Amino acid sequence: MTVTYTREVATCRGLSRFLTLLLRWRGSIYKLVYWELVFFLVIYYLLNIVYRCLLDKTGKEWFEDIVKYCNASTNYIPLSFVLGFYVSIVMARWWNQYLSIPFPDALAVYVSATIHGHDERGRVMRRTIMRYVCLCVTMLFTNISPKVKKRFPNLDHFVKAGLMEESEKRVIQELNQQFPAYSKHWLPLVWASSIITRARKEGRIRDDFAVKTILDEINKFRGKCGILITYDRISIPLVYTQVVTLAVYTYFLTALLGRQNVEGHGYVIDLYFPIFTLLQFFFYMGWLKVAETLINPFGDDDDDFELNWMVDRNLQISYLIVDEMHHEHPELIRDQYWD
Amino acid sequence: MTVTYTREVATCRGLSRFLTLLLRWRGSIYKLVYWELVFFLVIYYLLNIVYRCLLDKTGKEWFEDIVKYCNASTNYIPLSFVLGFYVSIVMARWWNQYLSIPFPDALAVYVSATIHGHDERGRVMRRTIMRYVCLCVTMLFTNISPKVKKRFPNLDHFVKAGLMEESEKRVIQELNQQFPAYSKHWLPLVWASSIITRARKEGRIRDDFAVKTILDEINKFRGKCGILITYDRISIPLVYTQVVTLAVYTYFLTALLGRQNVEGHGYVIDLYFPIFTLLQFFFYMGWLKVAETLINPFGDDDDDFELNWMVDRNLQISYLIVDEMHHEHPELIRDQYWD
Amino acid sequence: MTVTYTREVATCRGLSRFLTLLLRWRGSIYKLVYWELVFFLVIYYLLNIVYRCLLDKTGKEWFEDIVKYCNASTNYIPLSFVLGFYVSIVMARWWNQYLSIPFPDALAVYVSATIHGHDERGRVMRRTIMRYVCLCVTMLFTNISPKVKKRFPNLDHFVKAGLMEESEKRVIQELNQQFPAYSKHWLPLVWASSIITRARKEGRIRDDFAVKTILDEINKFRGKCGILITYDRISIPLVYTQVVTLAVYTYFLTALLGRQNVEGHGYVIDLYFPIFTLLQFFFYMGWLKVAETLINPFGDDDDDFELNWMVDRNLQISYLIVDEMHHEHPELIRDQYWD
Amino acid sequence: MTVTYTREVATCRGLSRFLTLLLRWRGSIYKLVYWELVFFLVIYYLLNIVYRCLLDKTGKEWFEDIVKYCNASTNYIPLSFVLGFYVSIVMARWWNQYLSIPFPDALAVYVSATIHGHDERGRVMRRTIMRYVCLCVTMLFTNISPKVKKRFPNLDHFVKAGLMEESEKRVIQELNQQFPAYSKHWLPLVWASSIITRARKEGRIRDDFAVKTILDEINKFRGKCGILITYDRISIPLVYTQVVTLAVYTYFLTALLGRQNVEGHGYVIDLYFPIFTLLQFFFYMGWLKVAETLINPFGDDDDDFELNWMVDRNLQISYLIVDEMHHEHPELIRDQYWD
Amino acid sequence: MTVTYTREVATCRGLSRFLTLLLRWRGSIYKLVYWELVFFLVIYYLLNIVYRCLLDKTGKEWFEDIVKYCNASTNYIPLSFVLGFYVSIVMARWWNQYLSIPFPDALAVYVSATIHGHDERGRVMRRTIMRYVCLCVTMLFTNISPKVKKRFPNLDHFVKAGLMEESEKRVIQELNQQFPAYSKHWLPLVWASSIITRARKEGRIRDDFAVKTILDEINKFRGKCGILITYDRISIPLVYTQVVTLAVYTYFLTALLGRQNVEGHGYVIDLYFPIFTLLQFFFYMGWLKVAETLINPFGDDDDDFELNWMVDRNLQISYLIVDEMHHEHPELIRDQYWD
Asked: Torsions phi, psi of E140, nearest 5?
């Protein structure tokens, strides 16, 4: 589930509300980087102990030399620059993925408004179309999200959840054998189109205009599914991610040596704790973790989208709109400002 | 209410008009940072007094050493870079949120143009549709804005404000019990659709074409509501905000020590007042405050959008268009340039 | 009027054509910054004279100390960074504002094509619709541009210019009293919609389809007006503008002292003229002036849009299309390539 | 004609294919900067000779002082920053301009599909509409491109090219006298709309729906023309271009002195050739030339769009689609996969 | 085939999942840069051996001088800046190209829903329209991708693949002779439009509305093809690519000398291996390789799009939707939640 905090920063009078955000744990930078931090500190102090206790004078000189060399070389790579560019690309993708998640609400309103008939067949038609739409988006979710895949590991689970009928399962299984290479999530949408054509033939839809409206909406729905598939298949080129990861990790590998507190660092006080290196660690590693959290927003992170919640919501709201609320509205009466 | 100043910078002849903007208080940088500034200065001078009056020679040397160390370490984190990227993301979201606020004007024009009939039922229909639309957007506002929530803390207040009838309140309450997890702001739009279907059946809308037009417009309206909800739920990932906040605050924590005016700073004059550090403070803290102001544009800041004003405006303008001005226009006469 | 120069840089053979652009005065950097430049130089030389002629040795040492201190502190604020981000935001807004200016041409073509009848009533209808559209955009312009406001200071001037009839003025005045808080620019568009509904009823528009087309176009038109209003009301947050202005001006305040040519600067030659500081001045102040010119593109600057020209053009072209050219086209004959 | 090279970089195995691109001349950086380069080197060596041969010892000391001063001052202006921002603005405009060039293909398909009749009048109508569309875009091109203007210096050349008939020329000339201030490129589109209205009246277009489709398409076409005009009229603000040009040229003016190889530069070897300064020259000047090439993509540069080619293509393809291929398609037969 | 890895980074608990990505070979940075790396190291050590073994003392001094000079000059060019801007432009183009690839699915659904008739002619019509659409996109692919060109080197191969009939081949060959300069990929779409017009005439499409829907969809399809052509023809201006390539390669040419481990480098230890220079090499060269991989996404790289797979998929899915599934849908029965 995504971590929401806009309400807590609704105003910015007095001291910064952002400071209170620093105290959070869920989805926080501390939770994300603390394993790396522990590793970093352990190795840092191991090296420090080696230097202080185990090395003789020549060894110490060598060590100091390496420290000096590493320290001078940390600036070879413009970390902030590449992270800035990379993270803004990842964030843009992340947001666009959210906006591409299709919701059946619009379709439900159109179906409710244009497929007439309070008899059973009318109800079945409206409900089946919406069930197909929800089935489509759920099948899509199993393709892109491990969380939803865990909930629907095979077609039987769709049947059990009421999203699919046995006969439909068999059709899909047949097609899966014929064309194993392609995703089948769009299949229910084709069925939905066929039902709409049939509803027009039977006169339940009164004009060609409404047919077009619904077909267009189904088409838009399929377009959004396609975009989600695209985002799943076409990752940010691996080489870019590798460049950034390499840059950050080698930076801190270098810092492990370069920021060691050796003699000749020019300060009287003995710096037992590399406070500013740790700040840098928080900063750069945290920035990288922003990317890592957002690169797959359909996973298990604190900040990932709640697809399972959407699966339930879609079906409930769809049935609510096309069935219970079908052509229902409160009585038409004069409002308060009637003159 | 947002702070408007474009009119004052309409021209840029002579000295910069931007300079006059520096004299403003509402929505200004001074108003936003002065608490932080006061804190900063108090601690800065406390430390200064400790150094000058309380420390002995060894203590002073230690202090000077720490100052030197801190001063050398302030540049470890590229503040301007991360602020630049972060603020541009926040600004883009802020502006998109404004553009996503739905206005009922377009719908009102369509409703007025296509639902015919000067009798009471026609008037009731037109007014009710628009009332539902305004109700929808107001319910949405209570979800995302504490200001509007304060005005409409529960459903009774909608009834009192004339946005909702008692019967409608009961329906919503029932649904709230059935499906407590989902927002119900779209419900009035479904009712509005049903009224339109009924108006078509009664012949008040003359063609299927107009039905589609209004349904499409309602759909667009619902889409915009959905985007606002999305912006409210999906914050900028917490970790990013934390990274930026940490970076800025630790920078100035470091500066508290690193910019202390100790001996050996190389200047003859005694720098009692850290003028350039304060400029930096204004600059970076101001930049962060830009983000903090814009991250939730529906809050209480000087620069936040005036949702309560919109609530009133929407209803008044809607009724004006669909009722008072319905099918009215000035007499058709020859214009001045008629030849 | 905007300053156009693309034609002069159509090619880039030989020496850079950009160099010739440096010789221009209208809309140029020199015209924009010269007042600031004069101020800067006057104060710079005043300080210089004080140092060289009025100060004694201790005073000079103090002065040199301050110069050294200021010079070392100019880099505290990353000017280029914040200017780069700020100016790109301002430019994006500026261009989007231009693209949002609504033109009546498309509507005129639709009106001419779909409202039939060569009799007087047909002509009056077509002309009146277009007059309302032009009136709407002109009323909008008076809201956002001081230049157009000067031309149409009150409603009488609209009547005089032939954009409004007396009866229409009275309606608007009444509404202004009833709802003083809201802009009325959309009112003529509502009238235009009513005329279209009437034209359909009278059979002058032959199908519902055309009605929808024109209503949609009017709606788009109103949408663009709304966006312009939005840009006018929602300025870039004041605090951002203040941050940038403060940064640039304090930079040059610091430079006034820090770039003084005092003894001990390490050069044999005496630098009477701060040539590189002036280059910086041109550069940074020019960049800020880019923002200042573009932040309100409806003002009086050389680069601002010519709204008054548009007001005239809109009415003339509209009448030309819907009236003089109504259903007219050259005789249909075989073209040259007919085989 | 634009310089295409994507095919040569289709793969990136082995050594970089980008290296082979360095060997190209057409549209290359060498071709663009070599005049500037020659100037730079000539002045550089002139100054060098003056220093080495003509100056006496005091003169040399002065010279060395100036060199030192200039060298220290080259970093005052963050060239890469402002170039990066400026070039990305210019590139975005350049690409959007290409995407805004209207092509008549879509209209041709619609016209061919909806205006029926194989008789002469039908053919004339279809061909005339397409001729008007091509005329519109060609008139537009003469407004924005010196190349196309050279081909069509006045209206007679349109007549000669078969794009305009004599009678049409007279109408345009009349209107040019009446309204000299406004471009007339949209006029043929208004005629085209009138022909479509007439075709509907004569029953050659069978439904109002098709009329709307074509009118919408013509409207889109006109919209794109308008955007091209806008890009032509509203240049990037002059002051921005001046700031960038000033920055680059003064940088290299300073480098002419600052990079002189004088004594005391600290190297044993005598640096006769300023190799790294030249690399910088290639780099920054090349980057500026990117902007200069793209700022007017309708000019004479190697990388400019081939508008004259488009003029011919548009007419030929249009006639081909609406006339020769009108309602033609290969015989309908079973395909290979028929089961 | 693109390299997908989002699934492996679905969560970011514990140590960074990005680290595991570093172990990949396909599409990795190592695979892309290792030839350059080998070259770099060979030359580096050759120079090193020359310095250590072959040069006498004067030669060594010269060499050391050159090293010092080169080392001081590596920072003349802001590599990270220009790479950042260039790569973000290339990535935007790459992604937009993917989004512009047209898929026939939407058209197939519309064709299946609106062209009625289970007889042979109906089937032939539906299949032929879809075959034309697939033919169009395949012809387009041969234009932009060497991989697809290799599969379909001439028209006969289209016939053999079942995408084209002999009679169609002859028509295209004739047109190729008449208008050799223009691409013919849009031709099948014109045929498809004609078939649709015919289907309407024969009453197989029941309303004008559906005709418009399909024509619009075909038009959108053609628009996307046009955009792909545009991306193929209009490369990023050569001069920009050259500037970036020059910058990166001269940087490492300079580094070959400047990073040589000569005496007087200030370290006790002898640095036989230029570890940090290699990190830089990986970083900058890898960043450049990102651009090189993405600049032509239709080539042979690991990360390029699988057009050949799409060619097969398009035809199979199209036939599946319009033929096998035509107007088919599972039986309409009550769903599980029926009350």
From this structure: -60, -45
CB B135 within 8 A of CB A336: no
Residue C47 structure tokens: 């300080």
Torsion of CA C298, C300, C303, C308, to 10 degrees: 60
Closest in B21, B103, B329 to C194, CB measured? B329
Tell me which residue in B105, B283, B313 faces C246 most closely, judged by beta carbons.
B283
Q: Which residue of A has its CA nearest to E6?
A: A296
Chain A: closest CA distance from residue B179 (Å): 9
Handedness of CA A183, A186, A188, A194 (dihedral sign): negative
Query: Quick one: pLDDT at residue E1?
Result: 54
For the segment B46-57, what is each residue's pLDDT rounded down to a tens digit?
998 898 888 888
Nearest to D74 by CA among D226, D260, D238: D260
Distance CA C237, CA C234 (A): 8
| pLDDT (0 to 100) of residue B135 | 95
User: Helix, strand or coil for residue D61?
Assistant: helix
Q: Minimal Cα–Cα distance from D170 to chain E, Å?
A: 33
Q: Is the confidence at residue A1, as pLDDT, over 60? A: no
Shortest Cα–Cα distance, C33 to chain D (Å): 10
Phi/psi region, residue D275 (left: phi>0; alpha: psi -120 to 50; beta: rest), is alpha
Q: What is the mean pLDDT of residues A70-85?
A: 81
Tally C-beta pairs within 8 A across D and E.
231
Chain A residues whose beta carbon lies within 8 Å of the beta carbon of residue E331: 167
Which of E176, E243, E248, E281 should we substitute to test contact with D (largest number of D Cβ atoms within 10 Å)?
Answer: E243
Phi, psi at A274, each rounded to 5°: -80, 70
Residues 6+ apart with CB under 8 A from C94: C294, C295, C297
Largest CA distance in chain A: 99
Instruction: Show Cβ contacts of residue E262 under 8 Å, excluding neighbours closer than 6 positions.
Output: E51, E60, E63, E64, E67
CB-nearest partner of D267 from E65, E171, E175: E65
pLDDT band at A131 (very low <50, low <70, confident <90, very high): very high
Q: What is the DSSP string of A167-188?
A: HHHHHHHHHHHH-TTS--TTHH
Q: Do E12 and A289 touch (CB under 8 A)?
A: yes
Would you call A280 and B76 a contact, using CB atoms and an 8 Å cutoff?
yes
Contact E286 A196 (CB under 8 A): no
Mutual angle of helices D208-233 and D79-100, in 10-degree steps: 150
Position B217 pLDDT exceeds 90: yes
Contact residues on chain E for D18, CB-CB shorter than 8 A? 241, 244-245, 288, 292
Q: At residue D152, what are phi and psi to the nearest 5 degrees?
A: -120, 75
User: What ipTM did this prediction achieve?
Assistant: 0.90
* pLDDT lower than 50: segments of chain C: none
The CA-based angle A15-A20-A24, given to 5 degrees, is 170
Residues 6+ apart with CB under 8 A from C280: C255, D76, D77
- Facing residue for A194 by CB, picked from E27, E328, E334: E328
E109-135 b/e (C-beta count within 10 Å ≥ 16 → b): bbbbbbbbbeeeebbbbbbbbbbbbbb
Global pTM? 0.91
Shortest CA gap E135–chain A (Å) = 20
Count, in order, helices (H) and strands (E) of chain E: 14, 0
Say if residues C137 and C225 touch (Cβ distance below 8 Å): yes
Those chains having 3 or more beta-carbon pairs within 8 angstroms of chain C are B, D
CA distance B107 to chain C (A): 9
Q: CA C54, CA C279: separation in Å to the nearest integer?
A: 29
Q: Count B/C contacts: CB-CB distance under 8 Å.
A: 230
